[in-house]
Amino acid sequence: MLQLKAGIKKEWLELCKTGRLLGILLIILGLSLFDPIMIRFLALLMEVFQDAPSMSSLEALSGVFGQQTALASYAADCVSTGMLVVFLLLMRTAGGEQKRRSVVIPLTLGFDRDAYLYAKFLVYPPLVFISVLLGVCTAYGTTLLLFTHQIGFVDILLPALALGVYFAMQVCLLLGCGCATGKAGIFVAILYLLHTILTTALGTLGWNRYNPFALYTFGSNFTSAPDLVDYSISIGLAVVVCFAAVLFSSLLFRKKKLV
Amino acid sequence: MIEISGLQKSFGSKRVLNGLNMEVKPGEVYGFLGENGAGKSTTMNIVTGLLEKDGGEVRINGKDLSVMEEHPIGYLPESPEFFDYMTCRQYFAYIAAACSYEGDIRKRTEEVIRLIGLENAIDRKIKGFSRGMKQRIGIGCALYSGKDILILDEPTSALDPQGRAEVMQIILQLKEMGKTVILSTHILSDVERVADRVGILHNGVLQLEGNIAELLRANAGHEIMLETENLPADLIEKIAKSPFAISCNLTQHGGKVEIAEDFEEGNRALFRILAENKILVSSYQVVRPTLEQIYLKVVGAHAAAKGWN
Q1: What is the SS3 assignment for B64?
Q2: Are B224 and B287 in contact (CB under 8 A)?
Q3: Among A18, A107, A110, whose Cβ lies nearest the Cβ of B100?
Q4: Residues of chain A neighbouring B96 (CB-CB closer than 8 A)
Q5: B98 contacts in A (CB within 8 Å)?
Q6: At B211, phi and psi to the nearest 5?
Q7: Cβ neighbours of B58 (radius 10 Å)
Q8: Are the CB atoms for A35 and A75 separated by under 8 Å?
Q9: A255 touches chain B (CB under 8 A)
Q10: Order of strands across the sheet that contains B55-60
Q11: How far apart are CA A161 and CA A235, in angstroms?
């Protein structure tokens, strides 16, 4: 327990002192401001063009650039740009420490390998999850200031949850692959493999709507009423993937040679 | 006491340790020598539990290492790396958790930091530390839990002379504290300065093990350095052809003569010749061999026997 606490403190120090926390918050919260403003700007552009002769066909299009589009755009950018930046920021903690051999001294002195690993899983996925929830809320707040109110706060909660869980699952996989192999880059190959296997398996069973790797589609769906069963099963499967990542990486990391 | 017997380790088809036998006595500094790839790091990694052995036995204070619950050795790996975003104090707090240190962590951290001479850098980030300072942190980590056996792998590699001197000073302090230290390094003058005994590893087995003072004594006295005035060429030739001289590197003003096995007799014969020819000897010195010469002799002889030279 003492070692787990020390491990969490170490990860927190790493996040704060290396500017990673700031980087994660900047990208996720920055996009939550940038995307609604961008969509509002596009809507304004459309309004300007509508006034011009022979531009009336854009009239219908300008209606598209509303609150829902702004939130969906945030979710999409978050999944692409945001996630890429988060991965780049967490590469070092996911496997770089082993590559740089900075774990050799603590582990040879008796630091429990599970405590070292669990501390990472207890810090980074929850942090990213909370950041994404905050990001969606900030994006929602920004859209309230810029657009006509179309979506209630309760309606964004499920997509926010789906997006947060999707991010946390990906971070779990990054940490799991990185720590188990000592090379965070392997994550890409394993993710591709997992994605293919899971999508094929669920597709064969006709359950593709439960695919945890497709959770981001729920996360960017602010237009239609959610199917609660599909949501719950997808999120449940994503949580199972998270626990599996912890378990497998723990099993592999225990046997891992550090030299 | 560390007793290693019949230690074996292979990587694929390459056998690195070939039945290594070695003994390190309590409270001594043991210089563990060998060329790159000789198996030193492999031995140390096995003893510290980082690698599994293929065969043989490692016993610490009479107990089999593989059944010991708590690892009894503090280890400084070669080129240690740290979480460099932490301050020295934060890092040692993490190390305290690693060692499951149960005493007053603050007090112990300050004690260790004082011992390694980093009092002025206690709240500075490790990132800005020199290599020498980092090595000292590494030694501090190995020391932290108060373990009596320390393994230091190349603690002075890539350090400037001042950094080397500081690390050597710490090792001498550890010796005074009664710690058992296994010191692996290629800088043989450092070993000569601090170690009590050495073991020279070559081809996975110990080729030579012994007390440094005795080894130096046993190999001493075979060379004489002379300073003379007007040593004639014919006399140089006479000395060179004398049965007592293995080699002769003399000029008009002196030089070096390597004497055959019976040093006392050879020495007398040389001075007899010089006296008979009324050669004034202004200085005379029996050359003391260095550990480096002994090391090269052991490794070189073995290589020659294998037909490598």
Answers
A1: strand
A2: yes
A3: A110
A4: 6
A5: 3, 6, 105-107, 109-111
A6: -70, 130
A7: 21
A8: no
A9: no
A10: B14-24, B2-11, B55-60, B63-64
A11: 9
Q: Identify the bridge partners of residue B228 per DSSP, sorted by sequence position.
A: B281
Decide: A122 and A8 in contact? Cβ < 8 Å: yes
Contact assessment for residue A238 and residue A169, using Cβ atoms and an 8 Å cutoff: yes
Tokens of B184: 């692996």
Q: Give, rounded to a whole angstrom, the gap between the first and last alpha carbons of chain B.
A: 37
Q: Report ipTM for this prediction.
A: 0.78
Position of tokens 């890092």?
B91
Q: Are the C-beta atoms of residues A15 and A50 closer than 8 Å to each other?
A: no
Residue found by looking up tokens 């962590």 in the block: B105
Say how many C-beta atoms besides its own lie within 10 A of residue A62's C-beta. 17
**What pLDDT tens digit does each residue of chain B (309 aa) get?**
889 999 999 988 888 898 899 999 998 999 998 888 888 888 988 888 888 889 899 998 888 887 777 778 888 888 788 888 999 999 999 999 888 888 888 889 888 888 888 888 888 999 888 888 888 888 888 888 888 888 988 888 777 888 888 888 888 988 888 889 999 988 888 888 888 999 988 888 888 888 888 877 776 657 888 888 888 888 888 888 888 888 888 888 888 888 876 777 888 888 888 888 888 888 888 877 777 877 887 777 665 555 544
State how far the Cα of A173 lies from the Cα of A120, in Å rounded to an integer: 12
Q: Does A258 touch chain B (CB under 8 A)?
A: yes
- Which structural domains are found in chain B, ordered by start? 2-217 (3.40.50.300), 221-286 (3.30.70)
Tell whether the torsion through CA atoms of A214, A216, A220 and A226 is positive or negative.
Answer: positive
